[in-house]
Specification:
The protein has four domains: 5-119, Response regulator (Rossmann fold); 125-301, 3-Layer(aba) Sandwich (Rossmann fold); 306-388, Helicase, Ruva Protein, domain 3; 395-470, Homeodomain-like (Arc Repressor Mutant, subunit A), CATH 1.10.10. It has 19 helices and 16 strands. It has helices spanning 13-26, 39-42, 56-59, 62-72, 101-119, 125-131, 137-149, 166-175, 194-202, 219-222, 238-250, 276-281, 287-293, 310-323, 333-341, 347-362, 420-438, 443-450, 454-463, and strands spanning 5-9, 31-34, 48-53, 78-81, 91-95, 156-159, 184-188, 203-204, 216-217, 227-231, 252-254, 261-263, 267-272, 296-299, 330-331, 366-367. The strands form five sheets. It has a five-stranded parallel β-sheet. A five-stranded parallel β-sheet has the order 7-10-13-6-14. Strand 11 and strand 12 form a beta hairpin. The chain starts with a strand and ends in a 7-residue tail after the last helix. Bound molecules: adenosine-5'-triphosphate and magnesium ion. Adenosine-5'-triphosphate is lined by residues 132-134, 160, 162-168, 273, 313, 316, 348-349, 352.
Length: 470
């Protein structure tokens, strides 16, 4: 486990002492304690492992903390101590009071798994495929672009609808670059009030404006040597756009209230769901800034453009929920089929929310077509059509990358190693494709050729996003 700290927000001495005693005994992480009034000074520390909300007063802070983390796109696990009523997106669990060794150690494991599933990438292509899930051509292309540009200092602009995974792309770029051990610092340009954005980005000197009680580092300074992710750049007000452009050109900036220039070395990744060219046309985005940022654009396809990714994404999201100790469930084929026909206006985020909801309702069970919330029950699919697949397209196997198709027998392990699982999956897809061709698309015949049951073959084809031609 890492040595990052746990922050306990608590003002009751007795409860603090109890928590400290057990946490020190576990000896996993340094414990920091602050009062509910001090949370906002403490929570921006990027090395926090988890936050525990202790006193009932701190429970009233929960919506604020949740909104703060959301705005920063921080995945910081939150735990509630005791049994107070509270709900928020980032609450990972409850720790009973008085605390005991077992429940605390489980909570810490969960916090680690939760953070690891998002933060740890060892920089390999296989790892990238694990983080950015999908077998569609669109996602393959995105992964290829990420690999090409990750370890350069080029500015990247990530485009795409809400919830398509723009932040996943930004993080992947960071973790695949040589900056991976330095900070990845996200800023949601749309969520920070206009008049605070400058000091948020560049920091301020003590007394620079009313309320600036202490000198504070800005995000550029916190990200030094690493990556600054400017999310929702399309929402950045014009005056800030001018200032940002200057930093991109000159690589220097000043804290608010100071005239001393600070030189910066950060890699800039920006993202937006807006059409910046339209914003340029209507005068709300600077063209010169656009060209600076758009050195290397990466466009995330919407989920409805890649229905073949829905099953593997759903599986991965269910697996991650299980890993976080949130429970698990299975979807039937009819449920998968229905989901793959739904248009997903909220993209992967909507899918993730649905999976989370289903885990709560059907923990440990099986979710069939009829169990899906009504809007996800698409017409033409029903429970007795368990094996219906999406309509065939012109190219029946558009999502098999040629690199994954069998390339002769591997008699020798290549010098730089081999991802066996991916290789075998490639072989399997290739054989399935050949069998399907030979059987003129009749699954039952193809299954015979492959020595497997029809249902197994259908299951495999669904897993690989292969479509049935009939
Ligand atoms: N290809 C993917 N593989 C695995 N998880 C994904 C993928 N794409 C998105 N996700 C998950 O979907 C959710 C939304 O992704 P993310 O926050 O990156 O989207 P976004 O494009 O930044 O959305 P928004 O515009 O709403 O901020 C996250 O929980 C993310 O982990
Ligand atoms: Mg985002």
């Amino acid at each position: 486990m890492s040595n990052d700290a746990i922050l306990l927000i608590e003002d009751d001495a007795e409860r603090t002492a109890q928590m400290r005693a057990v946490l020190n005994f576990i000896d996993d992480a340094p414990v920091r304690v602050c009062t509910p009034a001090e949370w906002s000074e403490q929570i921006d520390d990027q090395t926090l492992k988890a936050v525990v909300l202790g006193s009932s007063e701190s429970l009233t802070l929960l919506p604020k903390i949740d909104a703060h983390l959301q705005q920063e796109s921080r995945k910081l696990p939150l735990f509630l101590l005791g049994d107070g009523e509270a709900q928020a997106e980032r609450v990972l669990g409850r720790i009973p009071y008085p605390p005991n060794y077992n429940t605390l150690i489980t909570a810490l494991h969960r916090a680690n798994a939760y953070r690891d599933s998002r933060h740890r990438m060892n920089g390999s292509a296989a790892e990238l495929a694990r983080v950015l899930v999908g077998r569609s051509i669109g996602i393959h292309q995105v992964r290829r672009l990420i690999e090409q540009v990750a370890d350069t200092d080029a500015n990247v602009l990530v485009l795409g609808e809400s919830g398509t995974g723009k932040e996943v792309v930004a993080k992947s770029l960071h973790y695949l670059s040589s900056r991976r051990d330095m900070p990845f610092v996200p800023v949601n340009c749309g969520a920070i009030p206009k008049d605070l954005l400058e000091s948020e980005l560049f920091g301020h000197e003590k007394g620079a404006f009313t309320g600036a009680l202490t000198t504070r580092k800005g995000r550029f300074e916190i990200a030094e040597g690493g990556t600054l992710f400017l999310d929702e750049i399309g929402d950045m007000p014009m005056p800030m756009q001018v200032k940002l452009l200057r930093v991109l050109q000159e690589r220097t900036y000043e804290r608010v209230g100071s005239n001393k220039s600070i030189t910066t070395n950060v890699r800039i990744i920006a993202a937006t769901h807006r059409n910046l060219e339209e914003n340029i046309a209507d005068g709300s985005f600077r063209e010169d800034l656009f060209y600076r940022l758009n050195v290397f654009p990466i466009e995330m396809p919407s989920l409805r453009e890649r229905p073949e990714d829905i099953a593997s994404l759903a599986n991965e999201l269910i697996r991650r929920l299980g890993e976080m100790g949130r429970g698990s469930f299975q979807l039937t084929d009819a449920a998968y089929t229905s989901l793959s026909r739904y248009p997903w206006p909220g993209n992967v985020r909507e899918l993730a929310n649905l999976m989370e909801r289903l885990t709560i309702i059907f923990n440990g069970g099986i979710v069939d077509y009829d169990d899906l919330p009504e809007r996800y029950q698409m017409e033409g699919v029903s429970a007795d059509q368990s094996f219906a697949m999406p309509e065939p397209e012109e190219n029946p196997f558009p999502c098999i990358p040629t690199s994954l198709l069998p390339q002769g027998e591997p008699t020798q392990l290549p010098a730089d190693g081999l991802d066996v699982k991916e290789h075998l999956a490639g072989l399997e897809m290739g054989y399935i494709q050949q069998a399907m061709d030979a059987a003129d698309g009749v699954v039952a015949h193809a299954a015979k050729l492959l020595g497997m049951r029809r249902t197994t073959l259908v299951e495999k084809m669904r897993k690989y996003g292969m479509q049935r031609v009939e």
